[in-house]
């Protein structure tokens, strides 16, 4: 996730200074240097760096007294009091602090910090950043709020913030972000000496904006006003427009930095500790000294070039790192292996690997215990080079993911930092990134690997103890750790692709795309770029005069939600939606799959085991879990996935309604349990109960509505959400939900209890003790709190389903080895397992897979698995 944090340096330093100076005495060092603002600013920065999830960060400062706004209004900020000398002395120290923290800072002559923040936030919005968070005490920045940009304003002190999204801004002010500048245009801003309209305060300004929308529209309708207000507006129209311009943040200033310059690499603890000592922040010095104790060790290692030494250093319970170079570990180069144990610290280069049976035997031996980071990656990389690894009983990546899925990332340093171990660099610092990705000198990557192995040794006791404390040791040892081996085997085995079928499908989709283009042009009476939201918006809303549903900063919104609402307005809408579906299929799943096919004519995906908050697996390079099945054209893609041999089969095994069954188990809802235990059609049964009719009287519409409630309830669906799904009014949807909860009273009790416990504990758990922490539950923002409550209801259900299929994968894999079968598990797609099955093993595979999946765990209701097979993945469904 790429997230940018932008901090208003001047605003927060001023707030820190006045919050403490008002007490009468200012914190000073023994040399008389004032440090009160610096101390508050430091604590805020530490809070952000140590607790926020982000990838990029910058602190913006004002460059001087004169800005481009003074050219238009000389009195801009003219009434401000001089900055206290005690604060002036601290500003250079704050900048020095940021340099030590390795946080990018920036200022630009003639511009303010707001303009820097506005420009960078817009650049990030237009690039591949998923989120931008702005931190300030200045409400002017609320004009920058958007779908991607959130503004967090200081509420109490410097660390208690109120985050403004588009929705929260509207809840508080009843305004859109764009109207914040209109608000300033009307009421002015005394702190910046922006005049506004005399006699118009915030209350009046808001009232006027709620009615007229903007300064310009108010001026155009001034005749609707009466009395002194009318007179004041009439006499100050130019002043109001000037004030609006002064309050408008310039988002296109000429920066000489880029977003890449804001990439954060974490601070050096020793340098920061020295800084704290220099400014005499004794409490922070004490805290840092405790945290950096493990940085005192100067880690050295021995480069092993003599194979005769290997027997002496390859010991049981060693800590090892298989160091690789390459972005995809299916294709990477193995650089060597770091080994740390009681004999010392060692690095064994790749050329020694290739000439040593001792290393091969050491790695393969399941009885020789090993500790590593990312077993799955190591195993797959080794497999491709003719090696293997077994006997791993500690995997830092997997263990940390179980402790808290929010902190576990692929980079070793991120994880070790969470556990206050910092004597490891980021992989990115060693190898670079993007176009700067390179292989460094051997001594650099060798020491890096050894440091990681050494960190494993330091962290293992702490992490194992934490797993025990959380009652998660079994989840780690019996589920996630053995699953790593299963996933590695799946990834290395891969799934075969019929390239000819893929080519033929590509030609068919291309033909469909051209046909749809012609139909759309005919309906629009013109040719245009259908993929351009701007051009499409002009066609729909200006040429065809369809009702405008939503506008964006750049024009009309034409997203899928808008098109669905316009579906019945014009026949062109259906064609556009179909065009988008077909073009995405062609680009993503036809052209996109071709470069992913290896020389063995297979696709070797990567299953992310330590990524999602729910415990589900995800898939990348390519994502095989996201092949669309809603449309027939999407399902056709599955025809390309075939068994290793033409006479063999693809077998699909899919859990039936597993999340509803887990809900029945967790809630002990008697009626729901009875329905599953008697193998009733659960949606028909729910329809019978909700509508009070017999089985024979349940109509298809009733069943569809019951199904929507059944599945919606798992995700904490609201009456509004259900009404949208079913196309009914909110009151009717609310009656459906109420009736459902009355029919299955245990569900309501379960959901209320789970939310209550989550608010107390800060997390929820699956059946197998997997935790999901939900900080949103304590948010002051209603929407965030509501999201947290829905997450609390759903996470134990979805997470338990993820755990159950993982158990099934392990059990099936062990059974295949025990029965000495040649059939293989290939893919996991949420509740579905895909196998390649030898022709003469089909019947026994149907039996084994069903047995192991349905008996993966004992619930109050039976698990049910649907088995299908065919000569490709499409036919297996």
Q: Note the overall shape.
A: globular
Radius of gyration: 31 Å
Main beta-sheet annotation: 6 strands, mixed
Total number of beta strands: 25
Order of strands, main sheet, comes to: 3-2-1-4-5-6
Average pLDDT value? Answer: 91
Unreliable runs: none
Explain the overall architecture.
It contains 37 helices and 25 strands. With 877 residues, it is an alpha/beta fold. The strands form seven sheets. The chain has a six-stranded mixed sheet with strand order 3-2-1-4-5-6. Strands 7-10-9-8-11-12 form a six-stranded mixed sheet. The protein has a four-stranded antiparallel sheet with strand order 23-24-20-25. Helix 8 crosses helix 9. The longest helix has 37 residues, at 782-818. The model has no long low-confidence stretch (mean pLDDT 91).
From the structure above, extract its key features.
49% helix; 13% strand; 25 strands; single chain; six-stranded mixed beta sheet; 877 residues; alpha/beta
């Amino acid at each position: 996730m790429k997230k940018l944090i932008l901090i208003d340096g001047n605003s927060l330093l001023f707030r820190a200074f006045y919050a403490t100076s008002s007490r009468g005495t200012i914190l000073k060092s023994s040399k008389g240097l004032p440090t009160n603002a610096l101390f508050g600013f430091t604590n805020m920065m530490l809070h952000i760096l140590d607790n926020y999830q982000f990838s990029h960060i910058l602190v913006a400062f004002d460059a001087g007294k004169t800005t481009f706004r003074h050219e238009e209004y000389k009195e801009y900020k003219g009434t401000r009091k001089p900055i206290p000398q005690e604060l002036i002395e601290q500003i250079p120290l704050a900048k020095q602090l940021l340099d030590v923290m390795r946080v990018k800072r920036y200022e630009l002559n003639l511009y303010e910090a707001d303009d820097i923040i506005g420009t960078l936030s817009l650049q990030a919005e237009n690039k591949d950043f998923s989120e931008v968070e702005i931190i300030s005490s200045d409400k002017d920045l609320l004009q920058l709020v958007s779908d991607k940009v959130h503004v967090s304003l200081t509420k109490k002190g410097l660390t208690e913030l109120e985050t403004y999204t588009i929705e929260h801004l509207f809840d508080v002010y009843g305004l859109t972000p764009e109207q914040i500048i209109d608000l300033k245009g009307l009421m002015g801003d005394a702190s910046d000496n922006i005049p506004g309209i005399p006699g118009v305060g915030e209350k009046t300004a808001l009232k006027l904006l709620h009615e007229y929308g903007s300064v310009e529209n108010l001026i155009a309708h001034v005749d609707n006003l009466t009395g002194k207000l009318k007179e004041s507006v009439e006499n100050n129209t130019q002043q109001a427009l000037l004030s609006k311009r002064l309050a408008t943040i310039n988002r296109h200033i000429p920066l000489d930095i880029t977003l890449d310059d804001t990439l954060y690499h974490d601070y050096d603890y020793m340098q920061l500790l020295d800084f704290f000592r220099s400014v005499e922040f004794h409490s922070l010095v004490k805290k840092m000294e405790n945290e950096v104790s493990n940085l005192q060790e100067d880690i050295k290692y021995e480069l092993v070039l003599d194979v005769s030494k290997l027997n002496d250093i390859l010991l049981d319970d060693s800590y090892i790192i298989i160091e690789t170079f390459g972005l995809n570990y299916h294709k990477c180069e193995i650089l060597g292996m770091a080994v740390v144990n009681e004999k010392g610290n060692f690095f064994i280069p790749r050329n020694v690997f290739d000439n040593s049976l001792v290393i091969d035997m050491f790695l393969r031996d399941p009885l020789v215990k090993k500790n590593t980071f990312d077993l799955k990656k190591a195993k797959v990389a080794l497999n491709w080079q003719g090696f293997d690894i077994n006997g791993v009983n500690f995997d830092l990546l997997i263990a940390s993911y179980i402790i808290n899925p929010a902190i576990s990332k692929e980079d070793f340093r991120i994880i070790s930092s969470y556990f206050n171990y910092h004597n490891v660099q980021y992989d990115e610092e060693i190898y670079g990134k993007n176009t700067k990705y390179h292989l460094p000198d051997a001594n650099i990557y060798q020491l890096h690997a050894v440091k990681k192995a050494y960190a494993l040794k330091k962290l293992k006791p702490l992490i194992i103890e934490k797993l025990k404390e959380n009652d998660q040791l079994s989840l780690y040892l019996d589920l996630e750790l053995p699953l790593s081996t299963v996933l590695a085997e799946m990834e290395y085995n891969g799934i075969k692709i019929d390239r000819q079928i893929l080519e033929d499908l590509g030609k068919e989709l291309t033909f469909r795309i051209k046909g749809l283009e012609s139909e759309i042009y005919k309906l629009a009476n013109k040719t245009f770029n259908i993929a351009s939201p701007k051009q499409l918006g002009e066609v729909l809303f200006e040429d065809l005069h369809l009702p405008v549903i939503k506008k964006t900063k750049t024009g009309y919104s034409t997203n899928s939600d808008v098109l669905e609402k316009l579906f019945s307005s014009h026949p062109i809408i259906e064609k556009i939606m179909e065009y988008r579906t077909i073009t995405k299929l062609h680009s993503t799943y036809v052209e996109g799959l071709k470069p992913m096919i290896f020389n063995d004519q297979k696709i070797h995906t990567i299953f992310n085991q330590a990524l999602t908050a729910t415990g589900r697996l995800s898939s990348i390079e390519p994502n095989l879990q996201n092949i669309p099945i809603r449309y027939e054209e999407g399902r056709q893609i599955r025809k390309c996935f075939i068994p290793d041999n033409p006479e063999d089969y693809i077998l699909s095994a899919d859990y039936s309604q597993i999340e509803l069954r887990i809900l029945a188990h967790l809630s002990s809802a008697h009626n729901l349990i009875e329905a599953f235990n008697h193998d009733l059609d659960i949606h028909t049964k729910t329809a019978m109960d909700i509508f009070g009719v017999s089985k024979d009287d349940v109509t298809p519409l009733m069943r569809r509505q019951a199904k929507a409630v059944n599945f919606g309830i798992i995700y904490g669906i609201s009456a509004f959400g259900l009404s949208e799904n079913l196309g009914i009014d909110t009151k009717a949807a609310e009656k459906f939900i109420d009736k459902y909860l009355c029919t299955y009273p245990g569900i309501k009790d379960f959901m209320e209890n789970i939310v209550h416990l989550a608010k107390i504990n800060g997390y929820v758990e699956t059946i197998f003790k997997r935790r999901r922490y939900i900080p949103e539950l304590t948010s002051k923002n209603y929407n965030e709190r509501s999201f947290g409550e829905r997450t609390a209801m759903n996470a134990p259900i979805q997470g338990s389903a993820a755990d159950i299929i993982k158990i099934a994968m392990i059990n099936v894999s062990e059974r295949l080895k025990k029965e000495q079968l040649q059939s293989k598990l290939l893919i996991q797609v949420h509740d579905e397992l895909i196998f390649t099955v030898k022709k003469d093993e089909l019947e026994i595979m149907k039996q084994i897979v069903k047995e192991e999946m349905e008996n993966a765990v004992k619930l109050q209701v039976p698990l049910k698995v649907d088995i299908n097979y065919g000569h490709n993945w499409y036919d297996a469904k």
